[in-house]
Design goal:
single chain; 469 residues; alpha+beta; Beta-Lactamase; Helix Hairpins; Heat Shock Protein 90; five-stranded mixed beta sheet; 9 helices; 12 strands; rod-shaped; disordered C terminus
C-alpha cells in the first residue's frame, strides 16, 4: 500500500499542497503583522495627537482663567480608546492631579522624544515586564514654544500578537480542511490515473507468460496513458498475430517436411527389407527417393531464404545489371519444359532497356520464381509470356500466363508462406519473390481474371536504392 504509485502520487500532491499552504500562511501572517502594526501605530498617533491637543487646551485655559484641571478622568479616556495613557515632562496643572500616569524620563531609556513631531517606539513600564507599543506627542501651550511634556498613548504588543495568532489558527484550520479536501480529490485523481497503468501492468504479466488474449482497458481521451494503452494494445495484437503465424509456419514446415520424408522412408525400407526385388521396381523407388530428396532440399533452401529475408539477414549487392542478359537467362531456364509441354513460351523485351543499379542475382531469383509459378499453373498447350518495358522511371517485368486465374479473396494469401494448392510446390516461391522485390526497392503487382490467366508484374526503379538487411 505505502509503496504503490497511487499512494505516492497522493502523498506527493498533498506534500506540495502542504508546502505551498505553509508558505502562503507564513507570507500572510508576515503581511498581516506588518499591516496590523502599521494600523496600530497610526491609531496610536492619531489618539496621541488628539489627546495632546485636548490636554494642551485645558492647560492653557487653566493658566488663563485659573480653571481647575479637567474633570474628565484619564481612566475613562483609556476605557474609551482601549489604550493606556502616560505623561512625561513638567506638570500641565501645577499643584493639581490630572489623572495621567506620569513617567520619569529615565523610564524610556535611550528613546529620544522630539519637540516638534510624534515618535513611535516600544518600551517597558517601570516594575513591569510588558512591552508596550507607544506614540508620544509633544504637548505645547503655544505653537513654536517648547513642549511642557509628551503625552504617550500605548497598547501592549501582546494584543497585536493575539490578533495574528488568531489569524494563524484560522488559516491553519482552513489549511487542514483544504488538505483533507485535496486528499480526497487527489486520491480520486490518482485512482483515475493509476487504474489504467495497473491494468497495463497486469496485462504485461499475462503477455510475458505467453497469453495474448488479455483484457486491455479501453483508452478514453488523448492523454499519455491513453496513448500508451493504444500502443500496448497494438503491440499485443501484433505479438498475437506473430505467434499465430509462427505456429502456422512451424505446422506447415512440419507437414511439408514430413511428406517427402515419409515417401523416402517407405521406399528405403521396402528396398532394405526385400519387399521390392525387381530391378525395375528398385530403380523406380530410387527415382522417387531422389525426386523427394530434391524436393526436400528445395524446401529447406526456400525456408532458409524466406527466414533470412524476413529477418533482414541477407546481403544485397550494388552493381550494374544488364536486364536483357538477366531475362535471357531466366527465359532459357524454362525453354525445355515449355517445349516438352507444348506451351507457347515467348520473350518480349525492349531493344535497349535501361541499365539498373541493383543485385542481378536477386533480380534473376524474383523473375525465376514468377516464371516457376506460371509454369506450375499453366496447363499443357497454354501460353506464357515474359516481357520487359520501362515506364515513368521504373522497369516493368511482366509474367503472363493462361492458368486458371486467382480469385479476388486469394490474391493476398498467395504471398503467404505455404499457401499453395499445388502438391508439387512448396508454397514459398511467391512469398520469397515478394520479399526480395521489397528488399530491392520494388514491388510485385497482380492482375488476374478467373479462367483467363494472370499477370504478375515486377516493378523496380531504374536506379534502385538497394535496401540492405
Amino acid at each position: 500500500m505505502l509503496g504503490t504509485l497511487r499512494f505516492r502520487l497522493t502523498a506527493l500532491f498533498l506534500a506540495v499542497v502542504l508546502v505551498f499552504g505553509l508558505v502562503s500562511i507564513a507570507a500572510a501572517v508576515r503581511l498581516f503583522q506588518d499591516v496590523t502594526r502599521t494600523a496600530s501605530e497610526r491609531e496610536l498617533q492619531r489618539e496621541a495627537s488628539g489627546l495632546a491637543a485636548l490636554y494642551a487646551a485645558s492647560a492653557l485655559r487653566a493658566t488663563d482663567e485659573g480653571a481647575r484641571a479637567p474633570e474628565f478622568a484619564a481612566e475613562k479616556l483609556e476605557l474609551a480608546t482601549g489604550d493606556e495613557l502616560f505623561y512625561v515632562g513638567a506638570s500641565l496643572f501645577p499643584g493639581q492631579r490630572f489623572g495621567l500616569t506620569r513617567l520619569p524620563r529615565s523610564a524610556l531609556g535611550e528613546i529620544e522624544l522630539d519637540r516638534d513631531r510624534q515618535v513611535t517606539f516600544e518600551f517597558t513600564p517601570p516594575a513591569e515586564r510588558r512591552v508596550l507599543l507607544a506614540a508620544a506627542h509633544p504637548v505645547k501651550l503655544e505653537p513654536g514654544t517648547d513642549p511642557f511634556g509628551w503625552l504617550i498613548v500605548a497598547k501592549p504588543t501582546a494584543e497585536l500578537r493575539e490578533q495574528w495568532l488568531n489569524l494563524v489558527g484560522r488559516l491553519a484550520l482552513a489549511l487542514a480542511f483544504g488538505i483533507a479536501l485535496a486528499g480526497v480529490l487527489f486520491y480520486w485523481l490518482s485512482h483515475r490515473l493509476t487504474d489504467p497503468v495497473l491494468a497495463l501492468a497486469r496485462a504485461t504479466e499475462e503477455v510475458a507468460a505467453g497469453r495474448y488474449d488479455v483484457d486491455i482497458p479501453v483508452a478514453r481521451g488523448s492523454d499519455e496513458v491513453s496513448l500508451l494503452t493504444e500502443r500496448f494494445r497494438g503491440m499485443v495484437e501484433q505479438l498475437a498475430e506473430a505467434e499465430q503465424l509462427k505456429r502456422s509456419f512451424l505446422m506447415s514446415v512440419s507437414h511439408e517436411l514430413r511428406t517427402p520424408l515419409t515417401a523416402i522412408r517407405g521406399h528405403v525400407e521396402a528396398i532394405r527389407e526385400g519387399i521390392i526385388t525387381e530391378p525395375d521396381q528398385v530403380q523406380g523407388s530410387l527415382d522417387i527417393v531422389a525426386a523427394e530428396t530434391d524436393r526436400l532440399e528445395r524446401l529447406v533452401g526456400d525456408v532458409l531464404d524466406l527466414a533470412k529475408l524476413q529477418a533482414h539477414r541477407f546481403t544485397v549487392r550494388r552493381e550494374e545489371v544488364d536486364l536483357n542478359r538477366v531475362l535471357d537467362h531466366a527465359y532459357g531456364a524454362f525453354t525445355e519444359e515449355a517445349r516438352r509441354r507444348e506451351i507457347d513460351y515467348r520473350l518480349a523485351a525492349e531493344s535497349e532497356p535501361p541499365v539498373i543499379v541493383s543485385d542481378g542475382d536477386r533480380v534473376l531469383q524474383v523473375i525465376t520464381n514468377l516464371l516457376s509459378n506460371a509454369f506450375r499453373w499453366t496447363p499443357d498447350g497454354g501460353r506464357i509470356e515474359l516481357s520487359l518495358a520501362s515506364e515513368n522511371g521504373s522497369v516493368l517485368v511482366d509474367v503472363l500466363d493462361t492458368g486458371p486465374g486467382v480469385p479476388l479473396r486469394e490474391r493476398a494469401r498467395i504471398f503467404d508462406a505455404f499457401v499453395s494448392e499445388d502438391a508439387d510446390g512448396t508454397g514459398l516461391g511467391l512469398p520469397i519473390a515478394r520479399e526480395l522485390a521489397v528488399a530491392l526497392g520494388g514491388r510485385i503487382e497482380l492482375q488476374s481474371e478467373i479462367g483467363r490467366g494472370s499477370r504478375f508484374r515486377f516493378v523496380i526503379p531504374a536506379t534502385t536504392a538497394v535496401v540492405r538487411g
